[in-house]
Amino acid sequence: MKTNLMTVMLASAAMFLGATAQAGNFVAKSPSGKLTLTVNSGSKLTWKVDLNGKEIIKPSELAVTLTDGSVWGPGASGGKAQKISRKITTPHYTKSQIDDVYTKLALKGNQYTVEFRVYDDAVAYRFCGARKDSVNVKDETVEYNFAGDPNTWTPWIAGEEQGERYSCSFESYYTETKVSQMPSKRLSILPLLADMGNGVKVAVTDVGDLDYPGMYVHSNFKNGNGLKGEFPGYPDLKNSDLNGQGYANFVKLFRKDYIARVGGKQPLSWKVAVITEKDAQLADCDIVRKLCDGTSKGDYSWVKTGKVAWDWWNALNVTGLDFASGMNTPTYKHYIDFAAANKLEYIIIDDGWDSPNVLQFKPECNIPEIVNYGKQKGVDVIIWLKWKDCMKYMDRAFPLYKSWGVKGLKIDFINANDQYVMSSLRKITQTAADNHLTVDYHGMQLKGLQVTYPNIVSCEGVRGLEQCKWSPGKQGTLDGNMPGYDVMIPYIRQIIAPMDYTPGAMINATRADYHPVNDRPMSQGTRVHQMAMYMVFYSPLQMLSDAPSNYTREQECTDFIAQVPTTFDETKVVAGEVGKYIVTARRKGNTWYVGAMTNWDGRDIEIPLSFLGDGNYKADIFADGFNANRNAEDYKHSTQDVSKSQTLKVSMKSGGGWVSRFEKL
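RE: above sequence
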């Protein structure tokens, strides 16, 4: 990420600055004056936020406690403010450039600083040391005390790995619950979304995970209805048993009494509250790009984004062949033929190619032969690895993969975000970059690492399409409401990073017909619901998850999704409501791509085309078929000429969708 045209304006008057200080109170307003941050520095350091004069976040404590007994926060002073305005060039993103405009408030304490930023749609802060030597952070106090008792969409930790409190896959459905009804000390991953009423939402998260543990939250009723941050302790590597079998990373894990060891002048992660008045703003939030400090040094021009034919979801269950499909060289050559025919950039060779370790491939799955065949067809190869194998072998394995001609890695089963793991991801990503390998992290969520390292082309941390291979999907349960989840994550999970949801099912089921089938899975919801994910879900590396034979039987649907870019020049979230529906428009060059999705409720909406440029466009439209309520694979394909003065009427069936490509005439 590059920044340019930076303008820093230091005002001579507090009114012009949007910041004032009185008796330990420091006040900073967002550029439009919509949000007001009040920081009180006394025996405790607290922050509160008002929106249009109404309290949203009540006074909430922030502090850092070091193992030497020092406490950062109380007594901080200074209150200098700046208005910052800059433009940020954003590679591999939903926009080619974003405006970064905010009010900065800086306080100083004894060998530390606290920086606040007040945007029109967010407030963020972080601590930074001002010491010569490294320090151990024993804990960080983070509070979000809400005004009132908001309803929330809370992603509780879905399951602890081997009973370890902070080990999870970061894949959670959202439970709707009021803050006052949250169980004590039960952990939620982030972001978490709170509904403050009258359309106002607050998304809580941390940002910036270069060398600091990720944050969880749990209920905090000390000052009303609030949340408190919690961080995993640094692993006690000496006394833990890290020889986990299979996909497990450990047998027994112990943690130290501190959460991080940081450089004397190293900034800690940002603590963020995204505050919006319309749900569409959440789905078009650039806060992570704004807060992260930019791309690491080096040439990343070799990074290639695009779409990939994926093997694992469809269990290599391909028809029409004259050999047994499976994890073997002929099958992957067939995937390459399919990718080449549909102009896809990659295939993935998932779990099971290596033996006895990741330095060797199985004879029946000859990686160099597959890679060389792909080169002839213009298709590159990504291979799958476990995180723990990267930790053991990366210095030998990554140069080896480069010599084979492999172009990317899908790294899985990380399942933690303590400082040790986050530091390991930096090393893995940098070592991959040194060998011109892209990275797609699974069993993990990122909150900024992907900005620093552009060779990170996606990450999971989402309850994606793979759930349909095994989830019973019983009506009335969370796993029976994937269409509802699909229209939550653009507003919540997608705030922090791209999502490798792995869309593209061509076998589609109504709510009544859905059932799990591991080797021939189906999606919940309609065909066009799946197609819309290619516009609504952002991922620079986007999967086509179904089997090649299923796509070739549905070639006109395949043609449409294969032509959707994975990065864009401009994005407009046209309309939507959390958990109900969304309409997203993205532009690449002169062409617009629009996707709409609904939950299990069918709905009729109108889509104004005011986002289009001047002149006429040809709209290539896929809509739910008239009988998609009975057969979710039913769709209607049509074309028409349109202009930006028009409004299209759209009807989405239960679990349905709508898509269109608008090409300039």
